[in-house]
Specification:
22% of the residues lie in helices and 27% in strands. The protein has one domain: Spore Coat Polysaccharide Biosynthesis Protein SpsA, Chain A. The chain contains five helices and eleven strands. The longest helix has 11 residues. By secondary structure, the protein is of the alpha/beta class.
Length: 208
């Protein structure tokens, strides 16, 4: 089984302009860029260089900026380029898709995700981060059919079931979701596409 990594860049609202500083992957984190942090985590599980999908309407110099960090990276601008870049895959291989907009506090670590994929290679695995509440709890006001007000209290790690974001996904190449350049541009859209194809998936919570 080989792992083919794909990293999705974005332009969050808090990064303004169209220059290099508006790219999340090229934004500084400590003494390096976020992309370099992702590369280190990927190097721990695969020797295949990641494909980088730029944000919409990326700057014309975007590919040059990425190649300035690593000449082994490939920037794919169009869906058909992504399909061609993954042409060497085989059915036992997996795609590792990363959305760095939900970076764990402890940094990226995909080894646990890799472990779960190795145990059950027929399904997709998503590394997810749950929302957390103040002091480990969240409260919601609820109204019943008679208009009576009640307070529902949820506890982190027990009864709070809502996600803050999806960090990464490992998807079997055999499911064909990458065919014909139709790979979704977000991991949430990927979950919907897999469900539509009847591909089972499992969430792996990250723990900070």
């Amino acid at each position: 089984m080989r792992v083919w990594p794909v990293v999705f860049d974005s332009r969050p609202p808090y990064l303004h302009g169209r220059e290099r500083s508006s790219s999340l992957l090229l934004a500084p984190v400590g003494g390096s860029t976020l992309l370099e942090h992702v590369i280190v985590a990927l190097d721990a599980i695969t020797g295949n260089a990641p494909l980088v999908v730029p944000p919409p309407a990326a700057h014309p110099s975007y590919a040059d900026w990425v190649h300035g960090l690593s000449t082994t990276l490939e920037v794919v601008q169009r869906p058909e380029q992504l399909t061609d870049a993954l042409d060497a895959h085989e059915l036992p291989d997996v795609l590792l898709l990363v959305d760095p907009s939900c970076m764990p506090a402890r940094g990226f670590d995909f080894r646990e995700l890799m472990h779960h994929q190795a145990i059950e290679p027929r399904i997709a695995h998503f590394l997810v981060a749950f929302e957390s509440g103040f002091a480990g709890t969240k409260e919601r006001v609820a109204l019943d059919s008679t208009g009576q007000v009640g307070i529902q209290r949820y506890y982190d790690g027990a009864t709070w079931p809502f996600l803050n974001g999806i960090i990464a996904a490992m998807v079997p190449c055999a499911c064909g979701v990458q065919a014909h350049g139709a790979l979704p541009r977000s991991l949430r859209a990927l979950r919907e596409a897999l469900a539509g194809r009847g591909v089972p998936s499992r969430d792996i919570p990250t723990i900070d």
